[in-house]
Amino acid sequence: MAEQVTGPATGPQVVIEVWSDLGCPWCYVGKHRLREAIGQRPDADRFAIRMRSFELNPAAPHEPETIEKAFIRAHGGTAEHFLRAEHQIQAIAHEEGLAFTLDRLSANTFDLHRVVQYANGQGLGFEFFSSVQDGFFAGGLNPYEPDALAGVAESVGLDGRRVREILTSNEYADRVRADRHEGLELGVAGVPFVVLDRRVAAPGAQKVAVYGQLLERVAGPIRDERAS
């Protein structure tokens, strides 16, 4: 099952698969751009977004640390380099009306992806992931706390008790690994990576207009109802 984006249906469903990871700021921005592009179409409910798991750093520690420390370990450089990169993407996010705090934590996201897989099965994968990521970048949510994830799950219509069970088990681990493996086979070198109708791929956080053009390629142009 996949989450539906509401709007008047005018054609067959188009599945949009999004390989993404929680702490990737470009995934955060790209997700909102994609959603905006879909929302601009009168046939928005034709498009079903399915979240696919892709850990950017499978070796990341499970104990949360500052994003500055994680950045320097992964990319090298200094705190100045880190702040320059963060301020750049923060400015882009703010221009698009998105909250973006620099006071975030970083840790292994494998467990979160396991919950996303459960949410996908309930048709709420995109809604759950999006809510967690939005809260994370706004600075109001610690996604590495089981109670926090359970709370978000309940807010989108999932079973919080079930989420807690998953987090204390190894359920859905194979699906997370399978998603990453499939992404690598498709050429994913980084995220976000969007595949539309298994016909068109879009690496990186594209502009709203570019996503709109890709939607048109797979679903046809938006018909002007005013035309006679």
From TrEMBL:
Pfam families attached to this UniProt entry: DSBA (PF01323)
Highest rank taxon of the organism: Bacteria
The DSBA-like thioredoxin domain, residue ranges: 15-211
Protein name: DsbA family protein
Organism: Nocardia jiangxiensis
